[in-house]
Specification:
Elements (H helix, E strand, L loop, with lengths): L3 H17 L23 H14 L2 E6 L26 H13 L10 E5 L4 H10 L10 E5 L2 E3 L20 E3 L4 H9 L1 H7 L4 E5 L1
Parallel strand pairs: 1-2, 1-6, 2-3
Antiparallel strand pairs: 4-5
């Protein structure tokens, strides 16, 4: 089958052509709304479900997809560096890790909960810098795993023509491949057999 850059472009052209023709990939499927449940904070049902969730944290792996910049939000930096509120200015990354460590305290102190962060060419160095400058916000060595996704060529039209750099017409603009890469990167990293051997039963994806 097709592989590499040629496969990437060919597949992109197929998807773009289907989009231009208003082809619905879900034709023939029907939408079914799942039955939800309203939780009242502090109720017995809420507390029981919270205890159930907390009991699973120790056997979970948390995966943060952090390959994006904050430009669309008017922020000159990476998204995980955005402040969560104005009083302390704590970043999303600090807030996430603080919450993870707080949940971890309810379990075994000698069995830290793994955190995997998927970065990109745009965010990797800045993510590492923030972590190092803040002593990893209290995470233990070996608890944190960084996976960097590769960039792919950016396309500028429905013919899947490469988007060229405005300053150098011999340079192709690139972009992160998207959140879907996280599954492939986890598989290629070799981490999954390790997590399985540690008795991890759940993977929690968040952003």
């Amino acid at each position: 089958g097709r592989r590499g850059l040629a496969a990437y472009v060919a597949h992109a052209r197929e998807l773009l052509a289907e989009s231009a023709a208003s082809k619905n990939p879900f034709e023939g499927y029907s939408v079914q709304m799942p039955m939800g449940e309203r939780q009242v904070i502090g109720s017995e049902k809420f507390l029981a479900d919270e205890r159930l969730g907390m009991s699973a944290v120790q056997n979970s792996v948390f995966v943060l997809v952090a390959g994006g910049l904050g430009e669309r939000l008017g922020f000159n930096g990476i998204k995980v560096a955005l402040p969560t509120e104005s009083l302390t200015g704590d970043s999303f990354l600090k807030t996430y890790i603080t919450a993870l460590l707080a949940m971890q305290e309810q379990g075994q102190a000698d069995r830290p909960v793994p955190l995997v962060i998927m970065t990109s060419e745009d965010t990797h160095d800045l993510t590492v810098q923030i972590l190092q400058e803040n002593d990893y916000f209290g995470l233990k060595p070996g608890q944190l795993h960084l996976l960097k996704q590769a960039n792919v060529p950016a396309l500028e039209n429905n013919n899947a023509a490469f988007a060229l750099s405005e300053s150098d017409k011999f340079t192709i603009q690139t972009k992160p491949h998207g959140h879907g890469d996280v599954h492939t990167l986890l598989h290629q990293s070799g981490l999954l057999p390790t997590f399985l051997a540690e008795g991890r039963t759940h993977v929690v994806f968040f952003q």
